[in-house]
Fold these 2 entries.
Entry 1:
Amino acid sequence: MTFSFTDLVEVDLGKLATAVSDWKKAVDGLKKSAESARTGMQAKSDSARWAGVNATVTREFVAKTAKEVSDLHIEANSIYRVLEDGHTELESLQKQIKTAVQVDASNLGVRVEDIGEGRVRCFFPHIRGDSDERTQEQLDQRQALEDRINGILAHAAEIDASVARALAKSHGNDPNNAGHSRYESLNDAEVEHALELAHKGKKMSDAELRELNELLRYNSAEKDGEFATEFYQGLGGPEKALQFYAEMSIDGTGGDATKTRLNAVQDLQRVMGYTLANATDPDHRNHLDPSWGAEFRRLGTQQIGWEKGQWNKPYGYQVLGGLLRYGNYDSRFLNPIAEHITQLHRKDPYFFLSNKPTGSPDTYGFNPSGQLGSGNEPLNSVLEALGHSPEAAEKFFSQPPTAYNEDGTIKKDGKPGFDSYLDLLTDKNFEWTMDTNSANVLADEDKAKTVMGYGPDALGHALEAATTGLPYGSDAVSPPHSKEAADIFHKLVERYGGKPEDLDDSPLRDSLGNITADYMRDVQGAFMGDGGTVVGTHGPSAHLGNLDVETNPEGLSPGTLKNFLGAVGKDPDAYGAIITSQESVTTDLVNDGFHDADKYKELAPEIANRVHAGGEIAGIMAESRTQAVVDEKIAEDAKFNEGVATADKWAGRIIGMGIGKIPVGGEVAGWVVEDIQASVVENFTRDSSPEALKDRDVFLEQQQASSAQAIYDATYTAAEEAGYDDANAQSQATAAKREIENSYGLGRQRAGK
């Protein structure tokens, strides 16, 4: 019977708590009985001088009886431990689902309906007189809530099934023989069953594979690492773990695999990756021995087989790479592997591509996801791993490299031949490879271009993690930038601001746009020439310096940052991120100025100073967009509109950094974020028709007017909130608008140089 929504919401867990208490009493009583039998009856029997039949029958009977009492204690203890853990887990999940339904669903205005099969649907009920129109944000929140509730239900179903299975194994269905499977926790039972399934390998049915995935999904994130560690240990060691995953990935991605099997194997890739990340974290109470990392490195260049007589065998790193693409890994495990792989690639970029299965879909192999490569090139895989592992990524790009031998051991007194991985991987002459199973890929120019971009794209993800402190793609507010992270951004600006042509049509640009958005206060501080005194920085400064002096004390030559922004802004997604973050920082600065109005003799000049940098950046972005769409024709203007529409998360992230006077997480902050999001979409979504793009100057003038209007609106609103009457609010907003128009033109001129 399927575990339903109603089951979890309505079940009286108090009865289960009572059962736990009763079994605890039974355990305590049987423990005393078992001890008494061992030290009393059994001890006397062992020391007695039996003769005749008593020497065999009676002595044996006494020993058997004492053992049975001990077995009863073992069985009772297993049942108690499993019930106790099951109760704790289900109680937590019940609280979560009640909160989701009674609070979150109510606040969102949706209803939750049990649709059977252990699932619910969330929907907005029709209200008479209501248009039933919903914003995309509302629809996204509804879907997120539905997914969360269904996830809670799936987890509860896994707990319910695991408890039932463990109780049956503890009892053994034998009324005359106690003490069967022995468990100290529900975790023990879950690991045991996960390994039972895994040891079947590709003989697992689709249902069994889904069951294994559920066990891994809901237990791999345990903070103490117990389940994750015991699972990988139970697979039999690093090579056995690779063999299991390799066998399953090929089974699920082969030509005769069903869509159901492929989906299950793609899920296995994810959950095994998350589990490995948890198991290899040395800070967890339970974790794999560090020798696992050394053994993975040794196996990296060895061929791995899992069937007798297997002809074509992958290298260990090709298999491991599929797992590394998922999970936040500790640097002590990941970075030696990342360094080793990068050095192997530098020595021979095509070493790992010699055995790729040409002619198969890109999902075939050890990266069933098919995202950013088929998985034959482990460099792409390990860069994706760094992209999900911020602490490891920061160290990888900021610390001196360690030289490794081909077998993964450290090369004593060896030199890797380069100074940093940042320099190596951003070198224009670094040789990236085409990680695809496609045959004759060079005959398809578009496909070849896409495939050749997989490596740089993965590099961008790793750089995002290294500089922001978040896994790439995260919507969270980044933690304060570390000095090392800020230094990496400084070097990126220096590298590509010095040679912006190296970013022409580069897949790196969208990631560089996201990084720039996260460091927008550093960027605007550089344009203001105050090193961030007024703007503030989110952690240590990136030291972009004063861009308007002939000799820059921070090491960046004049124009470097402008060149960097101009090159990055030609990418539609980067443009959207930078524009939205710029508007957010500028809005925050304006609000901050009005909040501290009593500090200034005249407020209007101060507000003008605060919006100047934003206007200049907007001008640079407008010129970049126009060059990309009108001059170079490397992107469609509609794509820039999409970039603006999908960059709305940046408003919340910038305001959420909490550097200005807007209360983070408060109602005012929510209004400000919504206003910024609406203003950016309204003012930077342009007419993309061919007629509108014919005259570049007209197009740029429209952009200028939009930028000015956006700041006018933000300033007017801030003035009103500060208590200014309409006339004074308009006056302040008009002055800010005029400053934007002037600085916008300056930005255009600089970007056009």
Entry 2:
Amino acid sequence: MTMGSNVSLSALSENVGSAIVSLGWSSPTGQGDADVSVLLLDGNGKVRSDADFYFYNNPVAADGSVQLLGKEPTDDGSEDRISFDLTAVPAEVERIVVAASRYEGARFGELDDVRVTLADAVGESLLRFVVEDPGPVSAIIFGELYRRGEEWKFRAVGQGYESGLAGLATDFGVDIEDDEAEPEAGYEGDPERDPEGAVVADAVPAAPAADAPPPVTLEAVPAPRPPADEETAPKKRPVRPRTAKKKVTPPRAPVKSLAENDAWKQARLFPVSTLKSDRDREMRATSVLLSVMAQVPRFGRRITAPFGAPSGRMETFTEVSLPHGDTPRRPDGVIRVERAGKLWTALVETKTNGNPLKSEQVQAYMDIAARRGYEAVITLSNDVALEGSPLVDVKIDRRRKHQVALWHLSWAEVAHQAQMLIRHDGVGNAARTWLLQDLLHYLQHDNSGCHGFQNMGSAWVPVRNGISDETLCQGDPRALEVVESWERLVRQVCLRLGGELGQKVLPAQRTRRGTDPGARRARLADQLCLEGRLQAELRVEGAPGLLGISADLRTAKLRTSVEIPAPEQGYPLTWAKRLLRRLAEAPADLHVETLVEGEAGGPRGTLERLRPEPADLLPRDSATRITGFRLSLFKGMGSGRGNAESGFIRSVDDAVHRFYTSVVVHLDAPAPGRAAARERATV
């Protein structure tokens, strides 16, 4: 689409009762980000009340018409997805505005491929609009859905606001207030509303029941330190709309055990000791997951919302039998969600212990779902799906009036959502928290088979040997197989680290706009053959820079690193001393390198050698301009293709966790506007 054009949704698809709108962008440095927002407008072009403004702290409409689904990684950045149930939009709402805003002085002109796409209820992409050269604006209206008689149409807008989110929201009648007037989260007497709609008297987390078993002990990961000036002087927060704060119910510290000795095992709601076969694991895992989804509504919504399910009453079933030719089929599970008299239904096919999904099995469930009017088939396994590389090949009959969406979920994503709710977001109820803790304990047990991505594939050993003896040639399909496995591993590392931190962690790609995923992976495979290295970068919210991971298959070494920009004021020696003070608790073998302008590299050394002599970090020529510092840790790389103690996958997980917890958390968060300045310099 082009700016100002419009199109009727019914002319593009028959499945437009609901739609998924995705806002995306990419960044040359992989660090650009923005927040999406939605406004429901009446005939006067204004919101009926502030409740018609949906953003990061108000993500779901009470009637299920709007759901902000959050960010998902793409091959060249990330995108935010929004689910619309157009049949549930109130009659007095005539327009739905879809927008996004940047923060801390950043502008959309610093991003590439600023775009909006729209897909129908089965995930079929219907339209795409790219905002060309957005310029120095901090908020953009990407497009709007509007009524024309009995149908909905979409208009490509592309209008920018230099005044940001506050200016955009004010134009449409939203009252903006300063957060300084709000009481802090957790303040006694601060009224809140939990996700099920009940008003909570105060924001102090409820204590667990006296007879509740102690929760699973989860290792805490500290957040990055704020800058020194923020530690000493309070900083006024930016103006943003007021909203109710989330009720957080963190797990309490475990009490002293009453067991006679450490060999005793605590009784569990979901035992794993009796699991003997893959079939037992699949049935148990499906039943455990679906039952907790139904009993913990917030968790159930976290799992199903990305698939277009409404926010409503959920029921789950296992061991169902559905007719299919002469032989009935028995899917592993069924999810049914009811909202305002409408039913959303999905079949679930589960695999555990690394077993692959079977195309013919999934195809049969797609056919059954289409005939019975189900909305989706959800596959669940240890594997991680990649864009442009489906896990199973199925044929979709476009002649059918009712289309079925095929979605994939990894066990690592399930554990991530449980971890986020237990540690950070809460579920507002001690019993539900305990249920989630027992589910997480089950998923993380070695015998459950729900371990996430755990195998680099059959090509891993031949590729390593080929790189070692220099016999691997460009174009070898095994190199492409390893690159795809590496990408799956990186996405899983992001999920695990994000669950520990309670922050967004996404893979960052430095690619040009419009890059085809297959072409990009083929280029990385050729690069692997030439250089013998696998590389990736992670964007961690609040970190001072991108967290880099490099696996050198020639030397069997893993390198984790981060680049810190030089301060804008002060003297170089002061910068070096302050950095070393920050790293007082970092490992002694941490490598510190000074980055200088116009040269390959500056002075470098280990932290142990540099601590007594910070001046060794400065170039000999005082006129040389220092642009930043690179911190790196090196670790031996596992040789096996699996997740054993000596496996490659575990070594990558351990390296990222060690680097973040021992190095990154001691560093200053990026100063406002500095990330934007780095992006402009790179461009």
